[in-house]
Amino acid sequence: MLLASLAGFGPLTAQDYEMRLCKRVEEQPGKFRMVETVERWKPSETAVIVCDMWDLHHCKNAVKRVGEMAPHMNRLLKAARERGSLIVHAPSSCMNFYKDHPARKRAQSAPRAGNVPEGIDQWLTWLDEREEKAGYPIDHSDGGEDDDPREHAEWEKKLRAMGKNPGAPWTRQVELLEIDGSRDAITDNGTENWNLLEQRGVKNVILLGVHTNMCVLGRPFGLRQMARNGKNVVLMRDLTDTMYNPEMAPQVSHFRGTDLVVEHIEKYVCPTVTSDQILGGAPYRFGSDPRKHVVFLIGEREYRTRETLPVFAERYLASDFRCTFVLADEKDRNVFRGIEAVRDADVLFVSVRRRALPTGELELIRAHVSEGKPVVGIRTASHAFSLRGKPAPEGHSVWEDWDAGVIGGNYSGHHGSKLRTTVWTEDAGKDFLGLSEALRFSSGGSLYINTPVRPGQKVLLMGGAEGIERKEPVAWTYLRKDGGKTFYTSLGHVGDFAHPAFNKMLARAVRWSATAKKKAN
Fold it and tell me: What is 292-514's CATH topology?
């Protein structure tokens, strides 16, 4: 399951970073769970290393993505610099261009540390035997170029006309990234980088730049060297890219290929973070990434959806969607760290039970709904923001008519928890799931009371509890008054995720909702 905790001690100052570190822990051979921890970092003890954000590249699409990402990255660097973090620019093999730059001289003049690690100047192919045994999740043996062959030929011709080596045309860092000569450093050397970190008392290192499956991991200043030698290193996963050709295994989209490498890093090398943890707002999103964004809002303790939903998303959605998980804090149940991601959500997936969000954060949910954007809810989502008439804590708000207005339900409790629940498809459910015959299966959870049916609700599944004559709607679609679409099911018990039919229905629901159009202004 995903966990959240706050490391460190003492009060969080206005200048400290509150970092949400995501990693994947192997519980059983080949079975990983996502874990999120929250740490407080002092900016003065943190360095940001910019890896190989070159001006040119042999892959034309790689150049486009660097140019697309660089403005947001530059804002991140400015914000970190102003808060006192060291910025290290590391455009490998471009040091001659910067030989007279004060930031280059700063790196060269840093006193040699007394603990320079052996081998720090070498490329590190694997962190350890465990990572090597796992291998990469993508095949980049062809170099990873994803250009159209004809466009690539034209690009190579253009590079030659510019007097560049088509195989390695870079000479400097992309100009869109500003270098502060009075504070920053420039180096691609492992020892120089280490000297800088030790001189400044840097404990925490953020790596960003390109390319994740190559230079970001392997360079002398890269993730593996930093992790091996004891730095608290993370990858900023939304400000990176991968050299991957979708025609190679596992034949997924370029951006999904990057996701797979990020997951590999979280499993075997180090945790990852996102730029919003320093900049605020939402994580960066490539405009050229065509995938819709599903934000999972998870805040309940009864049904273990912190465990089940990431697995569901990985198996049924990850090939076609970007998936972000926003979790309720383990200590403060009404705080959802990273909820700003909802601003960028195409689909909001809710698994929350009776939480009163800070008023400004609940407004993000209201804005998503008022724009006519789709909502998918499971189980306790019907009473996600209701406290059953109790007042919300100061500065927090509830949404008591959420069930009626957004979910389209009539939740009023549930039939006995020990009564066996059976679920079956209605005709609309057969059409929704693409079935030729009705489906019938048992649910692991109690049957929610959701009668009578509301206008605008199309029932897909019905359910009954043993010994109870009354039948209840269990899954439906709902056309909201704001023009948006909702899918809801009162299923969602951990045992329900063992049923292929339930997973198939949930995946269909996300895809159905993702076709919704925003309400016209």
Answer: Rossmann fold (3.40.50)
